[in-house]
Amino acid sequence: MNFSVGLSTYLLVGAMLFSLGLYGLFVKKNVVAILMSIELMLNAVNLNFVAFNRFLATDRLIGNVAALFVIVLAAAEVAVGLALVIAIYRSRQTTNVDEFNWLKW
Amino acid sequence: MSTIVFFIFAILAVAAAWGVVTSQNIVHSALFLALTFVGVAALYVMLNAEFIAAVQILVYTGAVSIMVVFAVMLTLRGDVGESSPENKKWGWGLFVAGLVFVMITAVILTNADWRILPGPWTIQNSTAALSNLLLTNYMIPFEAAAILLTVALVGAVILAKGVRENK
Fold first, then answer.
1. How far does the CA of residue B81 sit from the closest CA of chain A (Å)?
2. Residue A53 pLDDT > 50, yes or no?
3. CB–CB of B145 and A67 under 8 A?
């Protein structure tokens, strides 16, 4: 096989993951599924950071550092997000985002 | 050889991501999500980022997936097979996500600077170099991230547990 994997191939994989996450963010009704879609998008961004680091800055680790901080922030985000889901579920008995409408009347 | 390994894991990651957003059963979505994380971790290994790959497995596949599964189990009611439906305007979501994908792909494929193959990787021990960077150049962000994580997890516990009003 003559084809070798270059930077644009990794970026295309990242673009696919990001678009799938965006699609899930728009269409899903269950708020836990929406959080999962956000995690997919953050993973796509991380893949881009690491790929750019590997191909465009081969003597530094700046992209890896950025990816590490994104992972930390994603962990904090998913913990707070799921805690909010559980708190809302306790008072409203639902995880459907269409029914999260306290502020609307 | 590495091309074949790349495509195995890239297709695994994208197919599992497809499963996450199309499955009507939210438990299946959570398990597909763990599979996506494993595929992306394998891609990190191929990009000479072993430490990020290990953190990906530990934090995402280990912690985040389990946390999502717990949240699913605590909030599940009714038929599990219909637990993650799509809303009525899914066509608009498909349109916007497709448009974003086409735009990103056009940018990637038309940029000649990115049509490159991997050059020689000059960093010998990337984990040691990364730890060195985190405790010198990026020390303030590192400590800020540590404080943020502590505060966020304490806040998550308080939110999930609920505050009792003691008089």
1. 13
2. yes
3. no
pTM: 0.91
Q: Please tell me the distance in Å from A101's CA to the nearest CA on chain B.
A: 16
Domain ranges for chain B, please list them: 1-85, 125-167
Domains of chain A from N-terminus onward: 7-99 (1.10.287.3510)
Strand spans (E) along chain A = none
Q: Name which of A23, A46, A89 is nearest B94 (Cβ-Cβ).
A: A23
CB burial of residue B7 (10 Å; 0-12, 13-18, 19+): middle
B78 touches A at CB < 8 Å = no
Assembly ipTM: 0.90
CB A27 within 8 Å of CB B90 = yes
What is the radius of gyration, based on Cα positions, of chain A?
A: 18
Partner-chain contact A67 B49, CB within 8 Å = yes
Domain B1-85: give its CATH architecture.
Up-down Bundle (1.20)
Residue A100 to residue B107: CA distance in whole angstroms:
37
Tokens of A42: 């953050």
Distance from CA of A49 to the nearest CA of B (A): 10
Task: Identify the pLDDT of residue A3.
Answer: 62
- 3-state secondary structure (DSSP) of residue A30: strand
Buried b (16+ CB within 10 A) or exposed e, B120-150: eeeeeebeeebeebbeeebeebbeebeebee
Q: Do A75 and B104 touch (CB under 8 A)?
A: no
Residue among A13, A76, A82 minimizing CB distance to B10? A13
